[in-house]
Specification:
Layout lengths: L10 E3 L6 E8 L7 E8 L9 E7 L3 H16 L8 H10 L7 E7 L2 E10 L2 E6 L6 E7 L7 E4 L4 H17 L1
Length: about 180
């Protein structure tokens, strides 16, 4: 992870006073080993009662990533812990269409207000912004008002890596 952290511009929530974790990380299939998506998380992703923010930097189309996040959540809402039948998957994919955002929202990025496209899904909301043709920023959040999100560049992922290790250890000790 460390070796590919510089493949994309990374952003995190300014002055977060809780758990920091690395999130989803995906790579190119072209043999270069370069990252296509890097996620940084703020808050406990498993505790539905607390604020949580996932910030993903990607070189893939933002709409595809939002669709996958919403699809993943839709299946999770059904309590799916094992294999899911094909018809359930198809129905969930149809419900997670992101062809058009539901609204727009201003989110601060590196001190500047940026207009993100926004989708709402129950307790969570999703937002996407493409500053250029090279990359996009996608946000998934719960119990957090978009007005309270202020993203800043992250140049050191060590606190996120350490947080992930600590979070995993705590789960292993509890289980």
């Amino acid at each position: 992870m460390r070796d590919t952290a510089g493949d994309l511009p990374l952003f995190g929530q300014q002055a977060w006073n809780g758990i920091l974790l690395t999130g989803p990380w995906s790579f190119r299939d072209d043999g270069t080993g370069r990252a296509t998506t890097i996620g940084l998380e703020h808050g406990d992703p498993d505790d539905e009662s607390v604020p949580w923010l996932r910030v993903l930097s990607t070189c893939d189309p933002a709409d595809h990533l939002v669709r996958e996040l919403r699809f993943e959540r839709t299946l999770g809402d059904r309590g799916a812990t094992g294999p899911v039948d094909r018809e359930t998957v198809r129905a969930s994919r149809r419900r997670t269409d992101v062809s058009s955002a539901e609204s727009q929202v201003e989110i601060m990025v590196d001190g500047q207000p940026r207009t993100f496209r926004r989708w709402d899904t129950g307790e969570r909301w999703y937002a996407a912004w493409e500053p250029d043709h090279e990359h996009a920023i996608v946000i998934a959040a719960r119990h957090l008002d978009p007005a309270d999100v202020a993203l800043v560049p992250v140049h050191d992922i060590e606190p996120y890596l350490a947080g992930r290790r600590d979070w995993i250890r705590a789960r292993e000790q509890a289980g």
